[in-house]
Backbone:
C-alpha cells in the first residue's frame, strides 16, 4: 500500500509511516495492535497480540500515549487499566457487534433477575457492562478462570452465546447465556468449509470459539487468536484452514512463508466477507492523524472505571500467564 498521504488535497504528500514513527518518538507513544488489524498497521505496531496480551501490555507500558489499533472496547480496557495515560483510537466508530448486543441497562436487569449467579463477562463489551460484572474473561483465559470457580457456582455468561456454549461444553458447566454474537464469526459457511476440507483433506481447521457450534465441530483446534497462531506455526502440516478474521493470516505468513494458510469461506465461497468491518475502520492515515492531534481520546467516567477495573483485575489475576505469543515487540 502507498503510505503517502495528502492531508489537505493541495499540499505535498507526506510519508505516513515515517511520520507515524517520528510522532511515536515525540509523543513517547506505544502502538498496540490486534491481529485483526490491516497488515500495514500490524507491521508498524510495537506489539501485536490477542485481547488478553494487549490488556497486559496496556497495564504495564511506561509510554505516555497508547495508540490502540483495535476496537473501542479494547482501547477502553487500556484506559481503565492505565488511567494516567492518554489513550487514542484511530477511529472512534470502531465498535463491536458483541458490545452492541449488550446494552448496560439490559445487562443490569439480567443480573438483577439472577441474584444468585456470578457474572462472567467476555471482554468484548462496554466499560459500563464491565462495571456491572464480577469477572471479565477473554477467549484465551475463560476456561482457566471458570475452572477456578466452585463447580456448584451458578454463572451468567455474556455477551457471546457461541463462546459461552463452547465453554459450557468444554467445562461441563451450565452457564446461563446472553444472546449476543460476533457478526464476523457467524458468517463462516459449513457447506463451503466442507467443500474446502474435501480439497485439502490433510489440512487442520483452526477456529475461534466465537464461531457457531457446527463450524467448531469441524475444527481440529479451537482457541483464541494467539492460540490459533501458535497452532498454525507449530503444526507440521504445510496447509492449514483458518476460521477467524483473515488479517491474522498476515502474522502466520510472515512467520512461516513456506506454509499455505487458507481463510475459511463464507456462504459466497469467499473469505473476504469475514473481514471485521469495525477493525477495518482504522487505517494508517487515521493512526497518523490521531498521533498528530492526540484525538480521538478514550475517556471512561471515574466511577465506571473503578468498578470495571475490579472485574478486569480479577481476570488478570486469575488468568496468570497463559499462552502469550510474542510476534513483534518484546
Ligand atoms: P482474541 O484475540 O482475544 O481471541 O479476541 C478475538 C476477537 O474477536 C476480538 O474482537
Ligand atoms: Fe467484535 Fe467480531 Fe469484530 Fe471481534 S471480530 S471486534 S468480536 S465484531
Residues:
Amino acid at each position: 500500500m502507498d503510505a503517502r498521504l495528502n492531508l489537505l488535497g493541495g499540499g505535498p504528500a507526506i510519508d505516513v509511516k515515517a511520520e507515524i514513527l517520528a510522532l511515536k518518538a515525540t509523543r513517547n507513544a506505544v502502538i498496540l495492535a490486534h491481529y485483526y488489524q490491516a497488515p500495514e498497521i500490524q507491521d508498524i505496531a510495537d506489539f501485536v497480540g490477542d485481547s488478553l496480551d494487549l490488556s497486559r501490555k496496556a497495564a504495564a507500558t511506561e509510554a505516555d500515549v497508547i495508540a490502540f489499533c483495535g476496537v473501542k472496547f479494547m482501547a477502553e480496557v487500556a484506559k481503565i487499566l492505565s488511567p494516567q495515560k492518554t489513550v487514542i483510537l484511530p477511529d472512534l466508530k470502531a465498535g463491536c457487534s458483541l458490545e452492541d448486543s449488550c446494552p448496560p441497562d439490559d445487562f443490569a436487569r439480567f443480573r438483577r433477575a439472577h441474584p444468585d449467579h456470578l457474572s462472567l463477562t467476555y471482554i468484548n463489551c462496554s466499560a459500563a457492562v464491565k462495571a456491572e460484572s464480577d469477572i471479565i474473561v477473554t477467549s484465551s483465559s475463560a476456561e482457566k478462570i471458570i475452572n477456578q470457580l466452585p463447580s456448584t457456582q451458578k454463572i451468567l455468561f455474556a455477551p457471546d452465546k457461541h463462546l459461552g456454549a463452547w465453554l459450557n461444553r468444554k467445562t461441563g458447566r451450565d452457564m446461563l447465556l446472553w444472546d449476543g454474537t460476533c457478526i464476523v464469526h457467524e458468517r463462516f459457511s459449513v457447506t463451503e468449509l466442507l467443500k474446502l476440507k474435501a480439497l485439502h483433506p490433510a489440512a487442520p481447521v483452526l477456529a475461534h470459539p466465537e464461531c457457531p457450534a457446527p463450524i467448531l465441530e469441524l475444527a481440529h483446534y479451537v482457541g483464541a487468536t494467539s492460540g490459533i497462531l501458535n497452532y498454525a506455526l507449530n503444526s507440521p502440516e504445510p496447509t492449514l484452514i483458518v476460521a477467524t478474521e483473515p488479517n491474522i493470516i498476515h502474522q502466520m505468513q510472515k512467520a512461516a512463508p513456506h506454509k499455505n494458510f487458507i481463510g475459511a469461506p463464507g456462504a459466497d465461497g469467499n473469505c473476504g466477507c469475514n473481514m471485521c468491518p469495525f477493525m477495518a475502520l482504522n487505517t494508517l492515515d487515521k493512526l497518523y492523524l490521531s498521533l498528530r492531534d492526540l484525538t480521538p481520546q478514550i475517556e471512561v467516567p471515574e466511577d465506571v472505571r473503578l468498578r470495571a477495573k475490579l472485574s478486569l483485575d480479577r481476570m488478570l489475576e486469575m488468568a496468570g500467564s497463559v499462552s502469550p505469543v510474542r510476534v513483534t515487540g518484546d
